[in-house]
Amino acid sequence: xxxxxxxxxxxxxxxxxxxxxxxxxxxxxxxxxxxxxxxxxxxxxxxxxxxxxxxxxxxxxxxxxxxxxxxxxxxxxxxxxxxxxxxxxxxxxxxxxxxxxxxxxxxxxxxxxxxxxxxxxxxxxxxxxxxxxxxxxxxxxxxxxxxxxxxxxxxxxxxxxxxxxxxxxxxxxxxxxxxxxxxxxxxxxxxxxxxxxxxxxxxxxxxxxxxxxxxxxxxxxxxxxxxxxxxxxxxxxxxxxxxxxxxxxxxxxxxxxxxxxxxxxxxxxxxxxxxxxxxxxxxxxxxxxxxxxxxxxxxxxxxxxxxxxxxxxxxxxxxxxxxxxxxxxxxxxxxxxxxxxxxxxxxxxxxxxxxxxxxxxxxxxxxxxxxxxxxxxxxxxxxxxxxxxxxxxxxxxxxxxxxxxxxxxxxxxxxxxxxxxxxxxxxxxxxxxxxxxxxxxxxxxxxxxxxxxxxxxxxxxxxxxxxx
Amino acid sequence: xxxxxxxxxxxxxxxxxxxxxxxxxxxxxxxxxxxxxxxxxxxxxxxxxxxxxxxxxxxxxxxxxxxxxxxxxxxxxxxxxxxxxxxxxxxxxxxxxxxxxxxxxxxxxxxxxxxxxxxxxxxxxxxxxxxxxxxxxxxxxxxxxxxxxxxxxxxxxxxxxxxxxxxxxxxxxxxxxxxxxxxxxxxxxxxxxxxxxxxxxxxxxxxxxxxxxxxxxxxxxxxxxxxxxxxxxxxxxxxxxxxxxxxxxxxxxxxxxxxxxxxxxxxxxxxxxxxxxxxxxxxxxxxxxxxxxxxxxxxxxxxxxxxxxxxxxxxxxxxxxxxxxxxxxxxxxxxxxxxxx
Lengths: 468, 341
What we know:
The complex is a heterodimer.
Chain A lengths: L2 H7 L14 E2 L6 H10 L4 H16 L8 H5 L10 E2 L13 H10 L1 H8 L2 E6 L2 E7 L1 H5 L3 E4 H7 L1 H7 L10 H9 L4 E5 L9 E6 L6 E2 L2 E6 L4 E9 L7 E3 L2 E6 L4 E8 L5 E11 L4 E8 L4 E4 L2 E4 L5 E10 L4 E10 L5 E10 L4 E10 L7 E10 L5 E10 L5 E9 L3 H8 L5 H12 L1 H4 L4 H15 L5
Parallel strand pairs in A: 3-7, 6-9, 7-10, 8-11, 9-12, 10-13, 11-14, 12-14, 13-15, 14-16, 14-17, 15-18, 16-19, 17-19, 18-20, 19-21, 20-22, 21-23, 22-24
Antiparallel strand pairs in A: 1-2, 3-4, 5-6
Chain B lengths: L20 H4 L11 E2 L1 E4 L2 E2 L3 E2 L9 H9 L2 E7 L5 E8 L3 E10 L3 E9 L3 E10 L4 E8 L6 E10 L4 E8 L4 E10 L5 E10 L4 E10 L5 E10 L4 E10 L7 E10 L5 E10 L5 E10 L2 H8 L5 H14 L8 H15 L1
Helix pairs in contact in B: 3-4, 4-5
């Protein structure tokens, strides 16, 4: 990387970019023809093309949300976005067959090393489509399907048709409509009854090109009594112009199943990250979102769980770090539709150098949902006077037997804690870094070891220069 | 902008999410009906209203509507000659409203009672606390059970002054209250305690904003809502600590007690913090009556219903226990005891 490029990247470790070697690149802008062309290029069945076209029209008609950071949302230039870019002609199963430039990128991100050590399967998505995909043989033998979404639609069209858009229909919001219209890539996972996938499976999403839009679509179905842990990581180069990431993730946990979905989002500070993530938990099922937001310019993401079956449980742990020019508008939503359902939400955020972090949550108890319990805790740290922290929680209780609690606090780092650490030989910067790592500890301890170490390193990097 | 020029607020707005404007407007939303002014008694004497002399500074639909539909205002001065003041607003006709302005120049208290037969009642209160006063304000809503109420309050608190605010809301059928307090002076403080009882189909929507505009300002908000039968309580809070307000301390708590299967409660305590050296916290809780408490009382001879009533009364009374002004506290507690009996 040239010195100029390094300077442009600044502190952001993943801000490098490689030369674009696209095999297919659509012109900028969105139209019905673009939507039809994407579908045709992928050789999709008619029903999918029709859904895409309907979603496109809904996107066009639907106004921009009038809540959140409206100024930033209005500045998105949809006509400047490239909606489809193919970097490789096929999804490779052997790492050595991946084109060299793409392979170099993922090597630098440490993906092959991680796969060998601790993953049950990997999908690496570069721009619009997966370039590499693998799954451990023993999982395949147990009937676990782990494919990129395009291959999933080709190989299991009936299964995809049965579940696609059932958790998040295209008309859910403007950005789910956009995703449904132009989706490409993402993961498709089906875990058969009673199968426990012991090692996490991972997808890594990378935007490399300028003004690129990435619209992956992920669908995970855990059949009765099964379990899976899915890990997702995201990075992009630092450019002077903006990119758009608008994913849709649907999780379906059947009776007694468990899905854990862990994300560490570290997009560069020129990416709009507008994502819809939602899971349905049937009887005695568990859906867990472990959601870290470090990067991006604007993130609007509220992982949700619909507790549809009796005894279902939702667990959402979310952390956000908002630095200069960033707005992390994150949160969590839980709908208690069935009796004796329970949920826990823990949200932690840090604002620094004029960054803004917001918690936006919803906790809703249906009139027929007896005996529900829920607890929400939001903690925010402000590291300087230029930053901002907001909390927008909503509690709607329609059943008298529900037991709900919400608590939130905003404060700065305690002087006593700093003094304690500094009196034991730490510099102020080191002490602050330790306190921040401790503050995020409930989140990092839920991540696989490599991710936790990486996150701590990222936070240390972000905290550099926090003093003075 | 006049009322008829204003856009009708959208339900996506926090303030209008649960009780939309058309539900609290007395006729049709594109009309500005003539509304009769209510009679106001101050310490037993009929108060004389003046015409509005001040322009409306806050461009908000409820305030504009109340000001335009009734051009009179009762100005009440709290000074050394009127330390403890009792105000009664008695409504008689179908549609009535009242605009009150309190100019608080010295420490004291006001106990305000809303009574009457109107089916629609609008109330606008503005208050300015001058420097260095401690003022207690207690309000009891005991309006007729079919009445719809639109109420706006704006309080400005100056340097070294404190407002202690207590409210008991049990009357009327649909209530939309929008209470905003501006802590405009250093070392100003607000303590706000509100008790709401929603029985039958009563809907009580409280929107409470507290703006910290200066350093070293304190606020504490507590809302206790009890809902029985088809009662529906809504509490939306907005706590804003602006830039350069270091040393401020703010907290808000919303508690909902649900007494029947069809009762509903909503709590949305929002925080916006733009200064770092502050302490800001909020909490919300919702639950039914603890069966152990009922068991305890029944073991001592209470029937199940009486035990529930005792617990309910205790829950609501706890809102006022911390009020330091004896007169205001007693006024609210007496009203609550009468109401629950």
